[in-house]
Every structure is written in C-alpha cells, then in structure tokens.
What does this fold into?
Amino acid sequence: MTPIPPSLKGRDFITTQEWNIEEIELALQTATLLKKLKKEGRPHRWLADKTLFLFFFDKSTRTRNSMEAGITQLGGHAHFISAETSQAAHGESPKDMGIILASYGHGIAIRHDLVPGEGNAYMREVAKWADVPVMNLQCDIDHPFQMLADLMTMREEFGEDLRGRKIAVSWAYAPSYAKPLSVPQGLISLMTRFGMHVTLAHPPEFKLMPEMMRQAEQNAKKHDGRFEIVDSMEAAFENADIVYPKSWAILELFGRPQEALAIARNYRSWICDAKKMALAKKEAIYLHCLPADRGNEVTDEVIDGPQSRVYPEAEDRLHTGKAIMALTM
Ligand code: CP
It folds into this structure.
C-alpha cells in the first residue's frame, strides 16, 4: 500500500523553485520515511513494475546509481541511456524522445549540465511533450536532487529549523574539469527560501548566472533569509554553520575549458583546509556534492575529518531521489 498522497503525481521536478515549501517539506518527510524503511529492512515497493528512463549527457556516480538503486528498491526498473549511444547523438529531437519514452514508461530523468543555455531548455522541451514526469538530474541552472539531499543532511545535523544558520557557498580551485554552476546556484536559490544566511564567495571571474543571483536575493527577502557576496573563502567561512566550498567554471568560457582552467590556476589558494575551517563555528560541518578534487578543492584532513558529512550527504541522495520518484511517478 502506498502512503503517498496523489497531489504530486505527474509533476515535473526541474528546479526546486517550482515546488512550493509545503511540497518540498512533503518530499523531505517522504525521504525520511523511506530512509527509515530501508534501514529497518522493510519493503516499500510503491512503484511496482514502473519504468524510469535515465538519460545522461554527462558522467555520474551518485546520481545514476542512487536513482537506479532507488527505483529498484521501490519495485520498479531503470533504463540507463547514454546520450552518446542513443539517437540524440544524431540529433533526434527532445520532442520525439519525450513522446516515445513516455509511451514506454512512467518517468524520464535527464542530466544535461555541461552547456549553459542548453540543458534546462532541453528538459523543458521533453517535459512539454512527455505525459510522464520529467526530472532534472542536473542541468546548467540547478541540481534539484542534490539540493534536497543537502537540505536533508543539514536538517539531520541541526534540526528542522535552519532559519538564521549561516551557509558559506564558496568557489574552490579544481584542475580536473570545468564544473557546472548548477550546485552553487541551486544552493543560493533554495537555502535562502529556508531562512538561511547564505554567503557566496568567488574570484571575480567566477560569477553565477545573473538570473539565479536575482532569484536568491528575492528568495532571501521573501523568506527572511539573507544573501550576501564576499570576495574570499575566509570571509565566507567566518562564523559559518555549514561550509560548502566547491569549484565551478567561468560562464563565458564554457566552450573553452582550457582558458578557464588557466585562469583558475591563479586561485590555487582557494582550498578548504584546517586553517580556514577554524574560521567557521566549532560545530560547523563541511559539505560537498562530490566528486571532490582532493588536495585542490579540499585537503584530506578536512574531507576525512570529524566535521565532514560528505558520506551521509551522498547517502541522502538515495532517499531524496526515491522520495521524488515515489511522489511524482
Ligand atoms: N553529486 C553528484 O551529482 O554526483 P555525480 O556527478 O557522481 O552524479
């Protein structure tokens, strides 16, 4: 028997902003229940025989596997589709893909995060034509499944009421690849809606999308949060409850990653180390969506240390992913 209310059946999950606070609360409550059921070994086959398509234009460890494991635990099945080996690589339209996959299954989840201006628009086009829920597994604008998991982990640490808690969202140096902007953008957008004091820090070249900055300001005003921008990781960490330092790329240089990485090398000192952690509150926690560039974004001492919550955070991807599937499919 499904204890899920029908109100969210069929809903897309493309940005957290499109779900109201009550709907996000319901998702978090559902995730908490699903976490408990899994830990107790109690079956919860709420999506028996349902099929979810996982359509990836980019690589993934957590997102793919939390969704595949999650739908299996819910009694359904996932089909993994790599964009490279599907007809999308030959230019098949999102309209045709949306209509056809919807006729085969019960949900379509898409990761399309590497090209600013493309991923979110692509999934909205699929959603326009598919009569099943479309879920955003990370686009150029937001990473809503990661945001829900982050919120869940913060609440597990500090309790449900996060109002007034300071979160430092800081750029950090990484040489591995030009990482999307969607995680910091998702954080400034969602955490301000929960009354948090969000402080953003980045070198001057690493600005976020102007519309997401405006959204964060508006959300902070509306929900008694706070949104400020500072110019160093140290300033952001000052007295923080949560630090979330991670790398992202330069918006204007997405097609030229080598140029962006060359500029990033000027900011190698933007690493989260024990000295910077000491600026935050004593009970502060370190979060990162992962994968982290160890030794560049963060030292082993911090990510493996007592303040790190990266593994519970990654685990919460499973429970929140299951909650969204169970509510919408
Ligand atoms: N955090 C996250 O989205 O991880 P993956 O890129 O491994 O899916």
Summary: Residues 6-143+316-328 form a domain with the Rossmann fold fold (CATH 3.40.50.1370). The first helix runs from residue 21 to 39.
